[in-house]
Amino acid sequence: MGAVSKNDASLTLPAVVREMSGYLRRPWGMAASFSTTLLLRAVTPVATAIFLARCLDALASGDYPRFLTAVCLYIAGYVLETVGTTWSMLVRVNLTESVASELRKRFVERTMDIPLNRYDRLSRGDLVSRLTADIGGASRVLAEAHVILSMVLRAVGVVLFLVFVATRLGIAVIATLALAAFMNSRAGRALGGAGKEYHASLGSLSSYALNALEGHAVIKAFNAQGYVSGAFSERVRAVRDKGLYLAARVSGSILGAFGGASCVALMAFGYGAYLTATGRITIGAMIASFVCTDHISPLGRLGQNFAELKRGIGAYSRVKEITEAEVDADLPEDPAAGRLDISAGDALIVVKDLSYEYEPGVKVLRDVSFEVRRGQKVAAVGRS
User: Fold this and answer.
1) Low pLDDT (below 50) residues in the chain
2) d(CA 137, CA 21)
3) DSSP labels for 321-372?
4) Helix axes 225-277, 167-214, angle to 10 degrees
5) pLDDT of residue 330
6) Under a CB-based contact definition with an 8 Å cutoff, are residues 169 and 275 in contact?
7) Secondary structure (DSSP) of 210-257
């Protein structure tokens, strides 16, 4: 594709974020929404947990005026958390659409500027892949970064609540969540090899099918339809068996992880009940602590989010190979430079009674005759 103005290997997340911030329609407004939603997502879970604990403690003590006040505060916190969640989704959608729109615009403009002698050497399938899949993946980088920051900030806030409000139980809950995350990661790592093998076999099957379609005339000429059909059926069965094996492994892994996490959670709940019964923590603090774990457990998926982020950066580097490609140095800058000095004269090319057919018996050209003289441009154009 020619030289690229920047080294793709130097692309890092901060560099990509800086570049993509220039693609946003209202960068300062989007940055304010980005920061505000992160703050809401970090604070509201802690606020609702505190109000829930106060609400339950007031109910247990029979202090109904304080209970009503805590209920109102809890509802307000819950509504604010819902607003923050909805606003965050809108911010991610706007980030994705803004970046995707600008990247498509730049990609199409740069593609139109590519000289024809270079454009003809490019793979059309590769250009379409960059225009669709790669731009789609690259446009989600900012949204994925927002998801990761939101998850981390919420988890940090909840951990602080667990440590300072219900210290003993909080430490036990954090330990159980860490153990459950470790079990899930080990189970997911074991599936990596099976998943990779399945996708490799699926890709091989697709390539085999495309090759068979492209070579259908040769297959028909050698009467090899039966052999190709049998070979393709065997490959389909092999891919199906690997897919079923992978599905069984995934199901077993999910059941095992769920069973292990459930046992660990029951142990932590039992410990919380013991602390409550002995008066070391209140019942509100115990229940609020377990409710808060919903905001920590998503950290187990951080690996998938970071993998998606890396794929987006890789897709962005492929898009930049087109949008920031330089014109080859040996191409003339002046459109008129290098043009042959020819004038009208005798015919250089004479074609008489030309016929052509792709398949026997089906002629696409029949008895065509023409002459091409100096300075003329002749094109044969059909319905396609």
Assistant:
1) 1-9, 329-342, 344
2) 16
3) HHHTBPPPTTS-SSTTTT-----S-SEEEEEEEEEEEEETTEEEEEEEEEEE
4) 170
5) 42
6) yes
7) HHHHHTHHHHHHTT-HHHHHHHHHHHHHHHHHHHHHHHHHHHHHHHHH
